[in-house]
């Protein structure tokens, strides 16, 4: 290279080097680009797979929800596995619906049967009462009179039992429904206390009232029935010449009615059992009673969104809570 | 009625609660130490740099005295030195300045001086002592080398010098010597009082312009302020004046400009003060960020404790005091640590900065102000950081504090009461809601993380922009440029200052050369005719109006034209190629009909021709007056003995790179091809020798030339591309190192802040996490939640840093481009992107680790209410 | 149908002299749909028992079977997920997540499971508990009783096999306690949930269908099996 070109030599060399570098870089870049593209493709595929699986699982979860709500309809009829799973689901749902429907029907059947029976027996029983009454008015020998008296008692008991059964079965089958309306609780309590006044006085029992006035949404008839049952029990099982306390307290979310007596002990272990159908504790063998009063009371209160609590012992308190 | 003495109990409470939380203490001490390091480094750098600069200047000037009087009689010396303002003084008298061999190239002064004077001139013997006996002498190693005398006290020295116009040779004994200072421009040789006074007896100083035989008095005052005024006072009090030089009682004085030059002009000082205040404010801010955070968190953790104190009757003030005491105790430990490290760090920085900016030595000073200043500022920062947490603790209502949990702090104030939305129970949403619980704290952490990122990026971008190309373009035009040391110092005086032939031969003999060429030039061999207008226009550029007036006065005699000194270059082909054409046609110079000459114009910082300095136009004629020989006339003035004129035509104006020029300004410059030059000028001094070499041999050549110029021909020097490249890298690295060092400290602080926040936030929520796990949140989900929280901090910091970093890049760094010619702006947030993985890892990893250490206890234990 | 059963549950702490027998051989059987109260003084082991039933703590020996699954055969993470789906907790101090509003707190376990919320069911619970107007409120803006109601709703929302309540009225006054407990009883009856509650309050315990007494880590009274 001549002297003159020498001056540029440096720059030329610089470009040459750069050029070579570029050459090498070219093939390098090529490989890197291909590799990156491959990587990206794999990544995309992977993400796609995951989202597909997720979609399927979501679909199945929705199916289950719909099934629960009873709104499930198959969404696709094709040869995919999903479709066959859907088909299986539908089958199973249908059969379980049928089963539960059947069970429901059988239960209803039973209930209606009981209702019918109770209804049907009403007439013959009232007839028995009438005839027993008639008989008692007749002139009879002494032991006959006694037998008639026993008959009377038993038929009364039978009557009472049937009535209670009818009421409870009606409640259960929802033939009669609870219709809550605005009432003043103090009025209701006043009523039932008056109703029991006679009976209480006959045993020398004083009923004290401490009632916080409150307006509640209740079915007056049925609530009175429930409270009456409890108060009745209280009077029945109380000792002579004691005090029965009726207290009404307003709570933020409930209204509490406490009925406390002193008398036959409510045993701790039986606190739950006494609400059972036909349950009679050993203590009360001697008294009259069928064992349905508390059962009914609890049904009524529970249907209105409340509950009953019992404080056991010799001075037991029955607390009725009604939502307000 | 005196107050109840409850300081003791307060202090005891502080001490006990202080010893109770070890992690908090260690973190706080670390933070305080770091802040102190920053302060100390700042102060050390500023003070040491200042001191170094001052010392360097003083050594260049030749002494550290504040000022003094010159050309005195001995009686005057005695009189003036007694003045009360004089704290310390030294005086000396010069006998001679030998200028014959071997001192032709070095200025040597032979004096008698007091020991104090020797100290003041930085010329006191480190081995041996000042001369006391008549024939004793003391000198520095440079002079010893020139005389070829070994460094040994007691050596015999023969010293030739000129006195009263006659050559004198005398023999002396070396009484002491010291290491010569490479910065000093002259060497001192001390003689005994007896000898010098004997020689000066009967000598009339005015023979040699009062240089010899007169006394100099160098004075140190109490401080370096108002030196001139103090001198004036001393003079006036003794019946002299320093103002009017025509009167009899005039005293010549000098003020050491090493002191005044470091008192910058007002503008500079303002800038320095502002920079200092900005630096202080910045460090206070950074330190505040973290120390406040640490104290804030620790106060929050101890809310129970403070509430309890309140229930038993501690007042607000006392609680604030407790916290302040804790801060004080932590500072007592942390600040000294920071001072030590900061001092060492600061000095290392100064060493690095000085050695890369210039090859001079660094001077380290142990100025107590450094420590006082940094301690003060560090303590100030700690106290400021304690105030708000102190207020927080004091305001605690005793009852609330007993039931304190992280979610309930500001229960009455700005706490949200409601929150719309149904999907907040997702993990990531919970994580974000958690982070937003305490917006103040979150902002704090993010700010400190962002700060370190932005700093890192800015420094990185800044140093990236250091354009090697621009540097090389400006300073280097060939692989090597050989010249005399004087050439590179811009100190050409005579023909002896050219590059030596032996040097060129040695270099060429290596055989690495690919291209080379000479640049001929010598001072004062040519003049040219110019008109008044041309000269005025040209000279107005260099001097002010005064200079212009001076020029005009030279024309006063009525001539419109005048001969003015010019510089003429003779250029070989290779150097000729390096020039850029501005105007005209350079090929015409080959024409044998016209005597062509090229007008030279200089290069500015950006590589553009300084067109204002073009004095003549292309095509104009130029008459050059060559001076061939000079002689002294009867009055001892130099006059021309022989000369000749040549007329040229200017064929072109070309720009010459500064690297190959005389590196001075003031005279118009022209150039001829070498053969014409050698013929016309008759002078063959080569000013510089330019060469390119084989690229593979750069390392060998560099080693060779550098050792040659250091050891063999010490008068020769060189510039090389490699050397420039190395220098530039060093410069760049210095920035990186210093800036990097500061950034590292700040990054540590930011990360520390983050770590602290994460640890405490997870610890405080121990119970909450246990509850979440009891209702069914798996450990994995919980860990994911805290990892997202951590990621939020670092992620937000990264994003904000990108934004702010970009802004700083565009706004600040771009403006540097116009200020620093070697800087080429380039937008870059590479640094932040590079750090991103680290930060992300940190944000995700740290919470995971903390979480792991927390779950070691069983669920039930963690759920206990009493903590 | 038996929904919860423990077999010879033992929990000992410490060694030799310092040995504490928190549970000393407890055999329980809880029927589905019942409301059981476990009553005892502090230190009797009732809290420990509840923690065992909920899988929050592992016994020294013995097993707990929830809905047919022996829970302590599961690993920690599996147990947590089991707990999330099968067990609902109500704590003494509500333990709601402070950064989530009422609605979000209620559906938290469901969301943690990644399931879709059964809106109608959850709305029913919310209405029964009287929380419709407070859905957007944050826990710090609710009274204690309201917070506990939210906790009850949360326990019910995921339809667990069993709800465990740990002194649920401990932080509430007597009137609020009765109210909150009343709601718990009514809603769990309505939604056919099984509840096991520990308390030292006699009145509250009377709300339960049956009471089990525990003393010194052993069952000392009450029924061994609860029927409705």
Automatic annotation (TrEMBL), chain A:
Keyword Chloroplast: no
Enzyme class: transferase
EC number per UniProt: 2.7.13.3
Classification via CDD domains: HisKA
Keyword annotations from UniProtKB, A to Z: Kinase, Membrane, Phosphoprotein, Transferase, Transmembrane, Transmembrane helix, Two-component regulatory system
Transmembrane segments: 29-48
GO molecular function, one term: phosphoprotein phosphatase activity
Protein localization: Membrane
Pfam families with a match to the protein in the record: HATPase_c, HisKA
Catalytic activity as recorded in UniProt: ATP + protein L-histidine = ADP + protein N-phospho-L-histidine
Residue ranges occupied by any Histidine kinase domain in the UniProt entry: 116-324
Name this polypeptide is given: histidine kinase
Lineage: Bacteria, Bacillati, Bacillota, Clostridia, Lachnospirales
TrEMBL record, chain B:
Superkingdom of origin organism: Bacteria
InterPro entries reported for this sequence: ABC3_permease_C (IPR003838), Macrolide_Exporter_MacB (IPR050250)
Alphabetical list of Pfam families matching this protein: FtsX
UniProt-annotated location(s): Cell membrane
GO molecular function term, any single one: transmembrane transporter activity
Keyword tRNA processing part of the UniProt annotation: no
Record GO cellular component, one term: plasma membrane
Residue ranges annotated for the ABC3 transporter permease C-terminal domain, each copy included: 280-398, 742-855
Family label: Belongs to the ABC-4 integral membrane protein family.
Protein name: Putative ABC transport system permease protein
TrEMBL record, chain C:
Keyword line: ATP-binding, Nucleotide-binding, Transport
UniProt cross-references to CDD domains, sorted A to Z: ABC_MJ0796_LolCDE_FtsE (cd03255)
Residue span, ABC transporter domain: 4-228
SMART domains: AAA
A Pfam match: ABC_tran
Keyword Transport: yes
Highest taxon listed in the record's lineage: Bacteria
InterPro entries to which the protein is assigned, alphabetical: AAA+_ATPase, ABC_transporter-like_ATP-bd, ABC_transporter-like_CS, MacB-like_ATP-bd, P-loop_NTPase
Family matches, as PROSITE patterns: ABC_TRANSPORTER_1, ABC_TRANSPORTER_2
Gene Ontology MF terms in the entry: ATP binding; ATP hydrolysis activity; transmembrane transporter activity
GO cellular component term, pick one: membrane protein complex
Family: Belongs to the ABC transporter superfamily.
PANTHER family, A to Z: CELL DIVISION ATP-BINDING PROTEIN FTSE (PTHR42798:SF6), LIPOPROTEIN-RELEASING SYSTEM ATP-BINDING PROTEIN LOLD (PTHR42798)
Designated name of the protein: Putative ABC transport system ATP-binding protein
